[in-house]
Amino acid sequence: MKKKILVISGGISKERVISLDTGIQVAKELRKNNYFVKIAEPDFKLISCIKSFKPNIIFNALHGQFGEDGYIQTILETTGIPYTHSGVISSSIAMDKELSKKIFIKNNILTPKYISYNFDKSNSDLINLIDKKLKFPVVIKPLNEGSSVNVFICNKLNIIKKIKLLKNYKRIIIEELIQGREIQAAIIGKKKLGAIELKPKRKFYDYDAKYNTKAKTKHIIPVNLKKNDYNKIMNIALKAHNLIKCGGVTRSDFKFFKGKFYLLEINTQPGMTNLSLVPEIAAYHGISFIKLIELILKDASTKK
Q1: pLDDT digit string, tens, across residues 64-80
Q2: Exposed (0-12), middle (13-18) or buried (19+): which is 271, by Cβ within 10 Å?
Q3: With 0-12 CB in 10 A as exposed, 13-18 as middle and 19+ as buried, what is 286?
Q4: How many domains in the chain?
Q5: Which of 2, 86, 155, 227 is the most exposed place for a label (fewest CB within 10 A)?
């Protein structure tokens, strides 16, 4: 008899729409393959829903804040029911761009230089600090968002204006802009899944470039890399996955510039929509969508 799967999607993050789509696609595929499936929101009714439905496994299809940063994982741990992807601490570390960067740096993983910006403190000498440590142009981004939400490329003339747009976050990071190729690598469990290259027509691989078909971002698979370079990027992705003790699927975002791979961040709950990269990488390597979902379910656990 097929297992009962509770799919949690939606939520209150800025990635709600993508999460809902991920949840719908996963549930649809599971139902097609005779699983008993229920979709739930991560709201105050969630625990009663879990108690009444009694799922064998919970598929976490949430993205962004409160779904990918350790909060929902803390709640799921109390149920004793196996859930997919990474655990509380791993999710929290991966979602915090500064904390994960510190781990990358400590373990000799190349990542763009950065400075943290605190809105509660005086930063009157910011332009000079950036000039000294990073050089313009730079990238500014929230500490704990995904899908390139509120990410901006800034120069000296517009950085103060752009930073003000992020004041609700209290803390952000300012990062050196690495030019070069956009390549992303996926890991499942403890195995290397594969990589894909993105060529956006927009200024960079932002939210629209990721999720809007009209943006016409080019997906290139297989990636045109020498075997040694391909092995290198997959090894770095696996190393980052293991360092943070991630579970399920992760997707690591890289820039490849002048023969070097720069790890931008690691995503612990990649999208599973029609435009998402992990299902595309899996399909290229002969892993169907249902097989990918089943591999993620197989990796589900508690006490992570």
Answers
A1: 888 899 999 999 999 99
A2: buried
A3: exposed
A4: 3
A5: 227
Give yes or no: residues 35 and 149 share one domain. Answer: no
Picking from 153, 176, 199, the residue at the C-terminal end of a domain is 176
Q: What is the pTM of this model?
A: 0.90
Which residue range forms the structural domain that includes residue 22? 4-85
With beta carbons less than 8 A apart as the criterion, state whether 84 and 6 touch: no
pLDDT digits (tens, 9 = 90+) for 10-67: 988 888 999 999 999 999 999 999 999 999 999 999 999 999 999 999 999 999 888 8
303 within a domain of the structure (yes/no)? no
* Cβ-based burial of 268 (10 A; exposed 0-12, middle 13-18, buried ≥19): buried
149 lies in the same domain as 103? no
Rounded Cα gap, residues 276 and 203, in angstroms? 20
Active-site amino acid positions: 15, 147, 211, 251, 253, 265, 267, 271
What's the gap between Cα 40 and its chain centre?
A: 21
Question: Are residues 142 and 75 part of one domain?
Answer: no
DSSP string, 255-275: EEETTEEEEEEEESS---STT
Q: Domain for residue 168, yes or no?
A: yes
